[in-house]
Design a protein that fits this description.
Order of helices and strands: HHHHHHHH
Distance between the termini: 41 Å
Radius of gyration: 17 Å
Number of strands: 0
Largest sheet: none
Oligomer: single chain
Structural class: mainly alpha
Helix content: over 70%
Number of helices: 8
Length: about 170
């Protein structure tokens, strides 16, 4: 039951993130600022996992996995929270440079790699199932964004889709 509650906490973050995108699309900017917290809610379960559970692996392997997780977390934070505001020419426009030339949703890649590394780190089936569930929630979010929301938000998204793969880099 504990893991189910943990999953629901993270999944609620993805729901808030989707509602954030919808609020932006509809022009509800004040509400979108509140819903933006959903992106941070998705991180809360990881604080619980890392504070409560240990890795059963040899210290060297644990350090290696922690380095891989840290690199993917840094890439995720950079792609999703830093790169667009830092490099985009104007607010609210479609950004297609940097990590967004790899695929249309590079944050999904980094998050998936992080979850695989975390699953290996904990080596505990209930945690792996929760992390797989988060990956599926993230996949549902980026699919909704890619197929429904972003084409309405960004007029040039159709052209971007023609030149940049959805998730798997070429």
């Amino acid at each position: 039951m504990e893991f189910f509650k943990l999953f629901l906490l993270g999944a609620s973050g993805y729901l808030l993130a989707a509602l954030y995108d919808v609020a932006l699309l509809k022009g509800y900017y004040r509400i979108s600022k509140l819903l933006y917290l959903g992106f941070f809610v998705t991180a809360l379960p990881f604080l619980f996992l890392f504070s409560r559970f240990e890795s059963p692996h040899h210290p060297t392997f644990k350090v290696l996995l922690m380095l891989i997780m840290a690199a993917n977390a840094a890439l995720l934070i950079y792609s999703v929270l830093v790169e667009i505001p830092l490099k985009s020419s104007k607010s609210g426009s479609l950004y297609t440079g940097g990590t967004y030339t790899i695929c249309r949703h590079p944050g999904f890649l980094w998050f998936s790699f992080f979850n695989v590394s975390a699953s290996l780190f904990f080596w505990y089936t209930p945690i792996t199932l929760v992390l797989a569930g988060y990956t599926l929630c993230n996949f549902a979010l980026v699919t909704l964004e890619d197929q429904v929301l972003f084409p309405k938000m960004f007029p040039q998204y159709g052209e971007y889709k023609k030149t940049t793969p959805f998730l798997i880099p070429r």
